[in-house]
Amino acid sequence: MALTPADDIADWLRLTGVPGLGPQRQRDLLAAFGLPVNIFAASRNAIAAVVGGEAASALLATPPDAAIERTLAWAAEPDSHILTLGDSAYPHSLFDIADPPVLLYVKGDPALLSRPGIALVGARSSTAGGEANAKAFARALAGHGLVVVSGLALGIDAAAHRGALAAGSAGAGTVAVIGTGIDRVYPARNATLAREIATSGAIVSEFALGTPPLPHNFPRRNRLIAGLAEGVLVVEAALDSGSLITARLAAEHGREVYAIPGSIHSPLSRGCHRLIRDGAKLVETAEDVIEELRGRLGWPAPAAARPSGRRRRRDEPAAVPPPAGQTALALDDDAARVLEAIGHDPVDIDTLAPRCGLTVDALYAILLPLELEGRLARLPGGRFQRA
After folding, report:
1. Least CB-packed of 165, 173, 359, 367 within 10 Å?
2. What is the CATH number of domain 333-386?
3. Domain 111-297 carries which CATH code?
4. Which residues, 6+ apart, have CB-to-CB distance to 283 below 8 Å?
């Protein structure tokens, strides 16, 4: 994997650090002159012919500064990399998007960015069941050989990263695309998860070191999530979710879009249902995704079912692990009756009590242990839903 020599990185950083010179004009200059060293060696008139006189003056008046020195020091640290648009290691999938970043900052293994990936995205304020699905799907898909790409946000994103990490060394790994500088973790609650991803996967950003979590950075991050993946799976999403932006961008880039359906009563299912109505593929298992991607990736069809008791080969699909909370713990008759009465839609306590033939107090005494075991989730408005 060829990377730009460290001596040349300073010129790339200088190019991308010019105030007011956006990515499109940076790419225009690279197309016209080749490497950044050639740009800075060119005359003002030659540069102005490409990007205009004002931008040419700004570029030539921007000398190397302390920020470049700090970035070079960061790049010299273990597992820290800067990929340039001219690197053979730059992920070719990003050439499919309208505005590929000129630089990518990577903490971890940059090779993961060029391997077949699947994006898993969804709501930050997710349900326990949604997080369990995200983790289970991510673990199974990573086990099939797909790098799990997500955005390191709370909720579904974090669950997807954890599921991919849970696949261990046999899994394909996970990539977190962030909307801050690579030296910052947002949200701070995911700091431990970020360290695990940097150790066993990769964190990637297009933003300069020190960039704070500005709101307009996250839609830009979403286009990279979509661009790095062969498809996007939306697990839970409200109608105004940023995950729908990622799905739209994926469709525009020619990627597949998948969605997991949910309860018609849950606001976090409405975004997925809209995607399905608009043409996204409804999926219920990880195998649904794999079968859809098999032809796109040129993977062979699965072999016939293997005899019972034979160990799975490394290249055979892994089964989807059960969602969190679905353990083998036995339920007593009352708890089993309550879970059956809840069904698969959210329900409030006053509706549930008559279904079960129990008083509200007696019902709460059953619901609390089920909640602690992860078998059901408490939703806003005093409602409950099976996890």
Report:
1. 359
2. 1.10.10.10
3. 3.40.50.450
4. 233, 258, 259, 260, 289, 292
